[in-house]
Amino acid sequence: MEIGDRNALLVIDVQRGFEDPMFGPRDRPEAEANVARLIDAWRLRRAPVVFVRHDWPDSPLAAGTDGFEFKDVLSGAPDLLITKSAHSAFHGDRDLDAWLRARDIDAVTICGIQTNVCCETTARLACDLGYEVGFVIDATHTFDAHGPDGVKVTAAELARASAASLHEEFAQVLSTDAAIGG
Asked: What is the pTM of this model?
C-alpha cells in the first residue's frame, strides 16, 4: 500500500481519556510517536487524514471533558473529523464510507487506540466494504483485559491476537516504517 490521494489515514480515538488509570496497563509506549510519524508522512504527500474520536458517556472519553480531547501528538486539522459512539469509525456522525467514495479513495490505513477494539472493528468493516486495509500495528495500543473465565490477557497478547486475526484476511498488518516506506 502506498501513501497517496487514494489511501486515507484513519487516526482512531487518540484521546487524552485513555490516560485514565481505569484502563489499566497498556502495551506499546511508542504508539503515539508512531501515529505522529504517520500523520506527518500522509501530510507530506498531501494524502487524506481522518481523525476519529469516541464519545463514551459517563467515562473518561465523554464529550465536554478533557479526556474527550485529542492527545497532543495529533497536529493540524484533519480532512475529516468524525465523532462516534460505536466501535467502528464507519458508524459516526459523518458517513465515512460516503466521504471516502466521493473522493475515489479505495484504501485506508488504520492507527490509534485500542488495537483490539475500535481499530480492529474499523479494519474489519472497511474490508467488508471493499477497501484495501493497512493496519499499522506499532501505531496502535491496547490495555490488559480479563476473559470471561477471569484470567488476565495482557495488552501485548491481545495485540498479537488482533494482528494474527486481521493479517491477510482483513488487512495487511504492517509497521510504521513499512507504512511510510522508511
From this structure: 0.97
